[in-house]
Amino acid sequence: MKKFLFFVLLLSSIVYPQINFDDYFENKQLRIDYFHTGDKNNDSYSIDEMLEEPFYGGSKVNLLDKFNYGKYKFVVVDDSTGKEIYTKTYSTLFSEWQTTDEAKKTTKTFSETVVMPFPKTNITVQFFTRDRKNNLLKKFEYKVDPKNYFIKTERNDEFSNFKIHYSGDPSKNVDIVIIPEGYTAAEMDKFKKDCERYVSYLFKASPYKENKDKFNIWGIEASSQESG
């Protein structure tokens, strides 16, 4: 029994290897904007641009996605070791569009984004699509030099933000951002009250009320030209 238990623990460590955040990443974020193009049965990827952002809000512990859910997978490989250091599975509107009648007749391009902790050294990012047999097929890869001059660093800080509910470190909690639509600059106080009311309702429902201390909720003061 002891030998069996040891084998199970060893197998678990192989399936879910631990990645030390500080070995590979800086405490900021790389945003990759890309184009996803295709029709009902085909898809392809191409890079639009990359941006360096000053904060990384994701987990610093679970860097490798354990669940493997979603139609797509994003994989980051450290070039010097060939080791996978970050993975994320996800779904997008593109896959929903593929189920429409329009997708049977034409090809379309969607603008999409993935974010990851900012790498210290050269990496290769890989994009996978899941087929109908549940196999993940690599469709595209792109080499990233973190010192590349063309990684943009400018930011748009036009809008202020405010805390509605705060539990702590974003790397250990879920961040939700509420963006207004139809509130003028003169109605920002009303927007803030509406946010507070929404959050009070949210934390009355399960599973949110049981996990209230695991969420940060923010509002953005982005006013509209016209009310409503």
Task: List the main descriptive attributes of the protein structure presented here.
alpha+beta; 4-stranded antiparallel sheet
Structure commentary:
Helices cover 17% and strands 37% of the residues. It is α+β, with helices and mostly antiparallel strands and 228 residues long. The strands form three sheets. A four-stranded antiparallel β-sheet has the order 4-3-6-7, with no helix packed on it. The model is unreliable at 4-14 (pLDDT under 50).
- In terms of per-residue confidence, which ranges show pLDDT below 50 for 5 or more consecutive residues? 4-14
Structural class by sheet pairing and helices: alpha+beta
**Number of helices, where a helix is a run of at least 4 consecutive DSSP H or I residues:** 4
**Biggest sheet, spatial arrangement of strands:** 4-3-6-7
Beta-strand residue percentage: 35-45%
Rounded to the nearest angstrom, the distance between the terminal CA atoms is 67 Å
How would the global form be characterised?
A: globular
Helix share, percent = 10-25%
Order of helices and strands: HHEEEEHEEEEEHE
Please describe the biggest sheet, giving its number of strands, its sense, and whether it closes into a barrel.
Answer: 4 strands, antiparallel
Mean pLDDT: 92
Backbone CA Rg? 21 Å
Work out the number of β strands: 10
Quick gist of this model?
With 228 residues, the protein is of the alpha+beta class. Helices cover 17% and strands 37% of the residues.
Give the helices and strands, then pairings.
Elements: H1 2-15, H2 21-24, E1 25-38, E2 43-53, E3 72-78, E4 83-90, H3 93-97, E5 108-119, E6 123-130, E7 136-144, E8 161-165, E9 174-178, H4 188-202, E10 215-220
Parallel strand pairs: 9-10
Antiparallel strand pairs: 1-2, 1-5, 3-4, 3-6, 6-7, 8-10
